[in-house]
Design a protein that fits this description.
There is one protein chain. The chain is mainly alpha-helical and 142 residues long. It has one domain. The chain contains 3 helices and 4 strands.
């Protein structure tokens, strides 16, 4: 059975990036409460037109902000599936893994490659739906 060896440097970089991302999210979550209190105080004293513009920007921005990672994930999964299908093995030779994994060949590899491409297509569809929702929110609250 062939083994695709883990890349130790890649694993270290990935875990460091994950830890830094977690720390950043924790700090931003703590700051979010204060910001929301300021926005609440400001919008409570504002006219309805200002509140509508804020809501418009907030919903449209949220849709786009969620669509970007979904699109990047979809693109990466499609690329992984296509590369695996072309090489006839899963994972492809050029892909780095966090741990040692068994290499699949022929029919099982093709099934995994197609499944990965399908998930990538679903993520791209989700990104398109989120962008459509953002555009709808922008139009609806005009």
């Amino acid at each position: 059975m062939e083994i695709h060896r883990a890349d130790k440097a890649y694993r270290k970089r990935t875990l460091l990036l994950l830890a830094l991302t977690t720390l950043l999210c924790a700090v931003l979550l703590l700051l979010l409460d204060g910001w929301l209190q300021q926005v609440n105080a400001q919008l409570s004293a504002s006219d309805p037109d200002t509140v509508r513009r804020w809501l418009r920007g907030l919903l449209a921005g949220l849709g786009v902000a969620l669509a970007v990672p979904a699109a990047l994930l979809g693109r990466g999964l499609r690329r992984l599936g296509l590369t695996a299908r072309m090489e006839g093995r899963f994972p492809p030779r050029s892909w780095q893994t966090l741990r040692d994994v068994h290499v699949l060949r022929d029919a099982p590899a093709l099934r995994w490659a197609r499944r990965t491409e399908s998930f990538g297509l679903a993520a791209l569809a989700l990104a398109a739906a989120l962008v459509a929702w953002a555009l709808w929110a922008w139009w609806r609250f005009d």
